[in-house]
Design brief:
The chain is mostly helical and 204 residues long. The protein contains 6 helices and no strands. It has one domain (12-203): Methane Monooxygenase Hydroxylase, Chain G, domain 1 (Up-down Bundle).
Length: 204
């Protein structure tokens, strides 16, 4: 029998998978910057996760097209998966930049920024896992915001030290680009958190 009314698609499992994929990518970036070995192999692992994230995003869009009922506003669902995708894309960009620029060793500031990003990804993943009930999300969003504020201060100080203490202009350019890529990815995680905040506000 032909089904005339599109079915109620389930989105939560895709949100959860997307969040876990993002968290794994963030942790792999942190591990890469801390251990700083097997760089090509580690970057390849992050690329696999980025590709998996794209597949999940495409599946969400397919379900949006055929769904009669959605758990949240369609635009918010789209913005959420795009936000998560931006985080994973940023993680891949950071990892690849270390290899492209042939960085000898990461700085302490880069390690700390990677740790902040990983902590943000954990909090964002926890918030995503609670979207079905919308309970207990606010503490995670607050922590994401506080981590972004911490990263802002750290990034500004790192760039200031870079221009003050490094006589090699090429090295300055390399590290400025890496810090900017890390900061942009941390900002993307906060943006994704703000989409969740919007979802919570609309459904309260």
């Amino acid at each position: 029998m032909v089904r005339l009314i599109p079915k109620d698609e389930r989105f939560q499992e895709l949100f959860v998978d997307d969040g876990r994929n993002m968290l794994e990518a963030a942790r792999k970036l942190e591990e890469m910057i801390v251990a700083y070995d097997r760089l090509e192999e580690r970057v390849a692992e992050i690329r696999v996760l980025e590709h998996r994230g794209d597949e999940l995003d495409e599946e969400v869009e397919v379900r949006l097209d055929r769904a009669f009922i959605t758990p949240f506003d369609r635009a918010d669902i789209h913005d959420l998966v795009v936000g998560i995708d931006d985080v994973v894309d940023g993680i891949q960009e950071v990892a690849e930049t270390f290899v492209i620029y042939n960085v000898d060793q990461p700085t302490d500031d880069a390690r700390r920024l990677a740790a902040i990003l990983s902590a943000q990804a954990f909090q964002l993943n926890e918030a995503i896992a609670k979207l079905e009930t919308l309970k207990g999300i606010q503490p995670h969003l607050k922590e994401i915001h506080e981590l972004e504020n911490e990263a802002d201060g750290l990034s500004r100080a790192a760039v200031a030290r870079l221009f003050r203490d490094n006589p090699d202009p090429l090295n300055v350019i390399k590290w400025r680009d890496i810090y900017l890529a890390l900061e942009n990815t941390i900002d993307a995680a906060e943006d994704a958190g703000e989409v969740i905040e919007r979802i919570v506000a609309k459904t309260a």
